[in-house]
Every structure is written in structure tokens, then in C-alpha cells.
């Protein structure tokens, strides 16, 4: 293996590892959850982390991985050495975040907040994120009685 190929594997493995670490720390996602959210198998993600691949990862999988984690695929492409010709892109300004969500994120990374409270915050967020939404007619039934 050439030095360049090895360096690319290490750079991409580092990118993937950081993305996974952020998903665990900020969103409390397990490897299985990352796989489910991105559509990329755990085996593939593990191979990327180990740098254990003979040919370059498929661009579609890299994009799916990045989009599932809210990352810019250009960073992954740069780690893979695919973006040499492209100049630096302007980083898009993220939309403003709700102040309550910012407060929750600060509590989740605050070392003085107990693990039990962080667990409760994460579980509540998961519940709200994945609860089924009721059709419009079902929601208004209680208002019709009377």
C-alpha cells in the first residue's frame, strides 16, 4: 500500500471516528442507531474506522453517512482525497437554534450535570422525536365533545 493510500485511510478513519464520537456524546446514539439513521451498515462503518477497505468507499454511502449525522460530505471527500480540484467552500450558516434546545445541549455537555439527569433529558428527547403523530382529525376529537 502506498503512503498516500494509507494516509487517506487514516484521515477518513479519523473523520468517521470523530463523527461517531460526536453522535454518541451529543445525541447519545449507539452504533446501531447511527447505522439505522444513515443507512450504512455497522460492518461498513467499522471497516471505515479500521481503515480496512481495499477500494474507496462508495460515494453514495459516504454521503448517506454524512447526511444522517448532519455533516457536510465535502469534509469526508476531503479526507478521502477526492476534493483536490475544488477550492474551499463557504461554510453555510446554520439556521438559528431554539434557545430551549441550546439550553438542553449545554446541560448535556456540562460536567456538573449528573448522569441521571442527562439520561432523563436524552430519553425525553428520544420520546418526543419518535412519538407517532396523530392524524389531524384524531387530534381534534376531544374538542368536539361537549
Automatic annotation (TrEMBL):
Coiled coil regions, renumbered to chain: none
Domain HTH cro/C1-type: 20-76
Gene3D superfamilies, sorted: lambda repressor-like DNA-binding domains
Cross-referenced PROSITE patterns: HTH_CROC1 (PS50943)
Organism domain of life: Bacteria
Alphabetized CDD domains for the sequence: HTH_XRE
InterPro entries documented for this protein: Cro/C1-type_HTH, Lambda_DNA-bd_dom_sf
Name the record gives this protein: XRE family transcriptional regulator
Organism expressing this protein natively: Micromonospora chalcea
Source species taxonomy: Bacteria, Bacillati, Actinomycetota, Actinomycetes, Micromonosporales
Amino acid at each position: 500500500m502506498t503512503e498516500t493510500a494509507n494516509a487517506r485511510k487514516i484521515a477518513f478513519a479519523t473523520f468517521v471516528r470523530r463523527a461517531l464520537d460526536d453522535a454518541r456524546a451529543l445525541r447519545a446514539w449507539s452504533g446501531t442507531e447511527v447505522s439505522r439513521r444513515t443507512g450504512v451498515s455497522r460492518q461498513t462503518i467499522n471497516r471505515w474506522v479500521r481503515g480496512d477497505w481495499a477500494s474507496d468507499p462508495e460515494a453514495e454511502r459516504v454521503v448517506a453517512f454524512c447526511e444522517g449525522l448532519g455533516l457536510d460530505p465535502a469534509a469526508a471527500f476531503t479526507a478521502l482525497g477526492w476534493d483536490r480540484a475544488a477550492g474551499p467552500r463557504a461554510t453555510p450558516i446554520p439556521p438559528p437554534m431554539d434557545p430551549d434546545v441550546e439550553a438542553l445541549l449545554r446541560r448535556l455537555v456540562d460536567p456538573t450535570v449528573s448522569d441521571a439527569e442527562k439520561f432523563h433529558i436524552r430519553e425525553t428527547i428520544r420520546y418526543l422525536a419518535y412519538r407517532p403523530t396523530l392524524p389531524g382529525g384524531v387530534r381534534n376529537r376531544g374538542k368536539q365533545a361537549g
